[in-house]
């Protein structure tokens, strides 16, 4: 339910903190200086780790006891057309983890995972239809039932078409509204969309339900040259470089637009933090992010109007809804993205698939974004 009384608060500066030696080494000076105010833990990335080290458990519990631990899922595959054993195991794992650690909230990525291996797929977008909306709402309810705390979704960095970009915020709002959920506004993801579709911030940001933004992400990424459109550069959300100055500028613009914001999180993959120089840059990015957040906190009194707990606990359907038609389309699309060598062949295969002349609107997909989707899927299939 919504808070009976409005609560004064401040925005907390956080880092994505996972069990990765390079990431932890980069973060240690920030922890030692007591700069880190909250941590985000991708709890489902430890599927190969039987026992979490005691010191890491203590770290999670320390932040959790202060209401400063947030959980971020990667592998649930919210929009899979077929309910899978792996999804049920994911929920069972979340229920167990949530009983041991106090999460402020839990989030997942928008999309479905390609690939037969549950942990070797790419998060790919879906059509914005009533059928898919119903599946997504059901899955969010199941996540909320497992964690007993607020739940949210992160905006996508990737889209196939301009129409999809413009409708994304509205569809996100329809998804989270029934569970009184919230949005992670990933500003680097937004930066990707702004560049890849030649949009301006002011027009795109208003397409998102900004009163439902509880968390902001910032990160870096990479540039990729298009093979189908010479001279065209594609911005990728690869989390493997420093935060661009443009993303810091987006943070300054976004802060006053999000009245229920609670956390700003810096993300970077540990695979990009092997050198002393890269670790120092990570620390500098955090300091710059925190300076922006602190300046905003000093000038503004934040009054949270929504705690994002459910207005009512809706009963779960006994059987998770499925769409075997959607499942078949997703299998076809995954196969095309993961195995096709060029976009011309991919478009031909799409034209002869069940996705042709359907709600997927593959005929209007931008060739350079289809090319990007293929590169993403094939990289994930190789183990990222």
Q: Describe it for me?
A:
The chain is of the alpha/beta class. 42% of the residues lie in helices and 14% in strands. The chain has 12 helices and 14 strands. The protein has helices spanning 21-32, 54-65, 85-100, 130-147, 162-176, 187-196, 201-205, 245-254, 276-299, 324-339, 343-351, 367-381; strands spanning 7-9, 12-16, 38-41, 69-72, 105-109, 112-113, 123-124, 151-154, 182-186, 213-218, 222-225, 233-236, 263-266, 302-304. The chain has an 8-stranded parallel beta barrel with strand order 2-3-4-5-8-9-10-13, surrounded by 6 helices. Strands 1-14 form a two-stranded antiparallel ribbon. A two-stranded antiparallel ribbon has the order 6-7. Helix 3 links the parallel strand 4 (69-72) and strand 5 (105-109). Helix 1 crosses helix 9 (276-299), helix 3 (85-100) packs parallel to helix 4 (130-147) and helix 4 crosses helix 5 (162-176). The longest helix has 24 residues, at 276-299. The chain is globular and about 60 Å long. Residues 1-5 have low confidence and may be disordered.
Using the CA coordinates, give the radius of gyration.
20 Å
Apparent shape: globular
The percentage of residues in β strands lies in 5-15%
Unreliable stretches, pLDDT < 50, 5 or more residues?
1-5
Mean pLDDT: 92
Q: What structural category characterises the helix and strand content?
A: alpha/beta
N-to-C SSE series? EEHEHEHEEEHEHEHHEEEHEHEHHH
What's a concise summary of this model?
The protein has 384 residues and is α/β, with parallel strands linked by helices. The chain is 42% helix and 14% strand. It is built from twelve helices and 14 strands.
